[in-house]
Amino acid sequence: MSHDPETAARVRGRSGRCDGWSLIEVFFALMMGGIVLTALAHTHFVATRMSREAAIKDRALGCAERVLADCLIHRSWPTPGEETPWLEDADTGLMVRVRSTVPELAVPGLVVVDVEVARPGRTGEVLVVLSSAGIAEGG
Fold first, then answer.
1. Strand extents, DSSP E, 1-139
2. What is the pLDDT of residues 4-44, one digit of tens each?
3. What does the pLDDT read at residue 78?
4. Distance between CA 125 and CA 53 in Å, rounded?
5. Contact at 8 Å (CB) between 83 and 99?
6. Stated pTM of the model
7. Angle (nearest 5°) at CA 67 between 70 and 107
8. If 0-12 CB within 10 Å is exposed, 13-18 middle and 19+ buried, where does residue 21 land?
């Protein structure tokens, strides 16, 4: 590079300072832009996942309500202390299990029916448990 004053003045401009960005300024600008884009993408991912989870739990609650209503209307549930195997719900594709228990400090003949709903293949992670308040067994 030549050190003559005309070339230096042309490169620097009239102010005497360099008019362009230095390499480090470009690097930091790109880095800050990358950080901002990463934060936006992460926020979008989290929001999408949360709305998807909320939709699944909403379907699970509707399924549990329907199954519990069927049990109470038809007065059909397992004998106290037993549970049904996990069965796939035809409408939602979720897995459903019904169990009945006798509360310890309750009126004789009172039964509580619980409906559990889980994802297919992941029955260890129950999404929703819906319980009846207490049903008289005899009638």
1. 87-88, 95-101, 110-119, 122-131, 135-136
2. 666 665 555 555 555 567 888 888 889 999 999 999 898 88
3. 87
4. 13
5. yes
6. 0.61
7. 70
8. exposed
Tens of pLDDT, residues 74-122: 888 888 888 899 999 888 889 999 998 887 766 777 788 889 999 888 8
Domain parsing of the chain, residue ranges: 5-136
The residue type found at 36 is V
Digit-coded pLDDT (tens) for 46-63: 888 888 888 888 999 888
Task: Tell me: pLDDT of 3 over 50.
Answer: yes
Buried b or exposed e, range 71-84, using 16+ CB within 10 angstroms: beeeeebbebeeee
Hey, how many other C-beta atoms are within 10 angstroms of the C-beta on 55?
A: 10
Query: Structurally, what CATH architecture does the domain formed by 5-136 represent?
Result: 2-Layer Sandwich (3.30)
Would you call 22 exposed, middle or buried from its count of C-beta atoms within 10 A (0-12, 13-18, 19+)? exposed
As given in the structure block, the two tokens for residue 90 are 């035809």
Which residues make Cβ contacts (< 8 Å) with residue 66, sequence separation at least 6?
A: 91
Specify the amino acid at residue 124.
G
Spell out a b/e string for 33-42, using b for 16 or more CB atoms within 10 Å of the CB, else e: eeeeeeeeee
